[in-house]
């Protein structure tokens, strides 16, 4: 009797363990030793590499310096701004993507537009500038724009016929030949590089008080001021703090960059116009001043003022 009970208990235990194994197939490896569906992948699995989209290349980091990049500069009617598109070079991997940058207003861009309106036939340019990021788009603050043109050798001058009279010879032949060589070199250089007007060659913008404009390239350091939104254009402006009744500091339009995005977030959370201390570089364009922020901090509120 005791042996029968022990045998029955062993059979029941074996049947129960067999049912558990059949009910949970995830615990047993599948064919070929692979894990069944639903089981977590091993931690050392290779990551999935997604191909880059050539139509939308990765953004360049803010502060990237572009030096002597070749490309074209055109006015984009849809964006309403001048754009620079770099040429793709197979030999240089750093230029493996063709990018289009919106050009920010500056004195260099103003001189380029004046040069373009003069009718120069250049279609390719050598470009240098600084990259910024705003709203998922790369912008470019130009520092140098050099027009390039194919080198065209001027028509060769006819060689002078040697004199028939052997007794007479031209005087000062070395000087005249040197002048011709210098003239030809100057023509070739002008065809190659073109001509960019200097700042004094730019026409004056009517209706603008130039005495209040800050010189292009001026840097400000930790200047107090207020951020406001221009209701007409929708741009953000930096208003200098009052320095006295005779202060003639102009308001500065803020150029697109990551610093501007942070200021926008601060303004959206503030009930009043935010006051900050700003540092950056001032540019000029068409009789207006702009500010490229490099650093800013919120201004501290005086302790004797209570909201």
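^ Assign residues to that structure.
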């Amino acid at each position: 009797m005791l042996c029968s009970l022990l045998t029955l208990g062993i059979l029941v235990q074996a049947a129960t363990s067999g049912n558990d194994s059949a009910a949970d197939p995830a615990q047993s490896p599948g064919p070929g030793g692979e894990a069944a569906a639903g089981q977590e992948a091993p931690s050392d699995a290779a990551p999935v590499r997604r191909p880059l989209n050539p139509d939308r290349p990765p953004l360049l980091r803010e502060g990237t310096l572009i030096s002597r990049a070749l490309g074209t500069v055109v006015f984009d009617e849809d964006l309403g701004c001048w754009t620079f598109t770099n040429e793709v070079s197979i030999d240089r991997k750093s230029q493996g993507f063709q990018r289009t940058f919106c050009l920010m207003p500056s004195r260099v861009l103003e001189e380029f537009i004046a040069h373009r309106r003069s009718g120069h036939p250049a279609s390719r340019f050598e470009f240098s500038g600084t990259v910024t990021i705003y709203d998922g788009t790369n912008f470019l603050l130009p520092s140098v724009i050099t027009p390039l043109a194919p080198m065209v050798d001027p028509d060769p001058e006819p060689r002078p016929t040697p004199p028939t009279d052997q007794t007479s010879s031209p005087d000062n032949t070395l000087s005249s030949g040197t002048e011709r060589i210098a003239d030809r070199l100057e023509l070739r250089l002008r065809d190659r590089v073109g001509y960019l007007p200097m700042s004094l060659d730019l026409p004056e913008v009517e209706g603008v008080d130039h005495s209040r404009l800050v010189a292009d390239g001026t840097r400000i350091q930790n200047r107090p001021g207020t951020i406001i939104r221009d209701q007409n254009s929708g741009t953000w402006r930096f208003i200098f703090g009052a320095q006295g009744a005779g202060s003639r500091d102009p308001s500065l339009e803020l150029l697109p960059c990551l610093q501007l995005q942070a200021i926008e977030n601060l303004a959206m959370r503030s009930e009043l116009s935010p006051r900050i201390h700003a540092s950056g570089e001032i540019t000029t364009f068409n009789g207006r001043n702009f500010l490229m922020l490099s650093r800013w901090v919120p201004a501290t509120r005086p302790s004797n003022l209570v909201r």
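The first strand starts at residue 65 and ends at 76.
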